[in-house]
Amino acid sequence: MLAVAISPDGRLLASGSDDRDVRLWEISSRQCIATLQGYSNRVFSAALDPTKHFIASGGEDRIVRVWDISSGQCFKALEGHSSWVLSVAFSPDGYLLASSSEDRTIRLWEVSTGQCLDVLQGHTNWIQAVAFSPDGRLLVSSSEDRTIRLWEVSTGQCLNVLQGHSAWVRSVTFSPDGRLLASGSNDHSIRLWEVSTGQCLNVLQRGKALTYPVAFCPDGQILANSSNDQTIQLWDIDKGILIRALQGHSGNVSSIAFSPDGRLLLSGSDDETIKLWNVGTGTCLLTVRSDRPYERMNITGVKGLTMAQKEAFRILGAIEKYG
Each residue of 273-307: pLDDT tens digit? Predict the structure, then answer.
């Protein structure tokens, strides 16, 4: 699972993965209620809009797609990026959609018309993440050029460039009150920044693990991050200390999202599962897995396949019975 996003009411979950599909899940029933198809390659990012009408997704085929939740149909296919789309984010009012790409640009789209309103340029390498401020006035981006940029949405102007990370900045997000930014990097650290000044207020060290997504709890007191060590960390922001580590995935944890009330945390992993965690206790409440391309296909006795081909089929869900 390369991306997970939760609806504002906490009822629905959207996921994107290597299997080229976007899936919509009902959290209460643990059921996949829609599979949105149209991508020719991997889906890297997904977002649910505040109005609960649309899902946005971006992937390897360079197209940003906006899906109608009620019909499961593609509402808009937004073309303009010249390389992989790595991140998508809706503005708080649902009017705008931001997308970032390996083409080193950010595009701002009008959701209702699909029109590209602005192209933000300044980063010198792939742009891994974008996020709107809670009031929608600012946009933040993080890049493999090791910087974070703050943009004014109305003018498209870059207001500040935050420097301090010594490797790729994989993720960035605003705190719920809009005063802070959190960024995660391949330099094994998380940095907390003051939005108004651009000052780095604290550095949380992750040991030798690479830091993937970061996410603020809605109350602004806890910061979650995931990494390539198969765990999720929960941090006390005021004290700058680790509260607990959530363990259970068997692959890199590539995406995380809090429920609107902050009591639950969702995580998506390379192990092809989505897990739902109780933030207060750290316990895993449920695990869901989407069907892989060859799920339950029996390759027992099939001739002409090499050992490597059989292993590839098994990884993609096929079964082979022995004895």
Answer: 899 999 999 999 988 876 555 555 676 877 766 76
Phi/psi at 312 (5° precision) = -65, -40
pLDDT in tens, 65-124: 999 998 989 999 999 999 999 999 999 999 999 999 999 999 999 999 999 999 999 999
For the sheet with 284-289, list strands across it.
253-258, 264-269, 273-278, 284-289
* DSSP 8-class letter at 298: B
- Asked whether the beta carbons of 287 and 273 are under 8 A apart, the reply is yes
CA distance 156 to 312: 45
Q: Residue 100 — φ and ψ, nearest 5°?
A: -125, 155
Q: Which residues of 256-282 are buried (b: 16+ CB within 10 A; e: fewer)?
A: bbbbeebebbbbbbbbbbbbbbebeeb
**Contact in structure between 212 and 227 (CB atoms under 8 Å):** yes
Question: How close are the terminal C-alpha atoms of the chain, in Å?
Answer: 33
CA distance 124 to 143: 8
d(CA 161, CA 50): 28
The answer to whether 316 and 291 are in contact (CB under 8 A) is no
Whether 27 contacts 276, CB under 8 Å: yes
